[in-house]
Specification:
By secondary structure, this protein is an alpha+beta fold. The protein is about 30% helix and about 40% strand. The chain has a 6-stranded mixed β-sheet with strand order 2-1-6-5-4-3. It starts with 10 loop residues before the first helix and ends in a 9-residue tail after the last strand.
């Protein structure tokens, strides 16, 4: 059994890191909704691994980016989402795990009731002052929870 511990020197420092991670995830949401694969993938490390909602494992920034370009220009070209951060847990000061619930929306940002939601886990690392996704998985969920849960 592992002991949970605070890896930051102060509550303010921890909150600053949480705020930066939230902003990174918001930037990813904006990029997804603009269908901009390069902008979206600028938040992945070069050696990232990603498992998408279709169960496809992608390895390395280039493969992730190539796949996102195809999906965002094709099957996902009319897809939009709201990203809601459900939790952030620090493993070390430079490693965090975030759970993000993704709600389908209209192009105007209105959540589509009873739409297909997903839950993603991002393993994020802080390199040169920037938080990036180094591994993750996005999974369709069977039951759509309310947005305000």
């Amino acid at each position: 059994m592992t002991k949970d511990f605070d890896v930051h020197n102060s509550r303010e420092e921890r909150q600053q890191e949480i705020d930066v991670i939230h902003q990174t995830i918001t930037n990813m949401e904006v990029a997804f909704n603009q269908h901009d694969a390069d902008k979206l993938d600028s938040h992945f490390t070069q050696n990232a691994t990603w498992v998408n909602v279709f169960g496809t494992q992608l390895s390395g920034w280039e493969q992730i980016n190539e796949t996102h370009k195809i999906l965002l220009a094709g099957p996902l070209s009319n897809s939009y989402a709201l990203y809601k951060v459900e939790s952030i847990k620090f493993v070390r000061p430079d490693v965090a795990i975030a759970h993000i619930r993704q709600y389908p929306t209209t192009s105007e940002g209105k959540v589509i009731e009873n739409g297909q939601c997903s839950l993603a886990i991002y393993v994020m690392v802080k390199e040169q002052g920037t938080w990036q996704v180094t591994a993750g998985q996005n999974t369709f969920i069977q039951e759509t929870p309310p947005v305000n849960s």
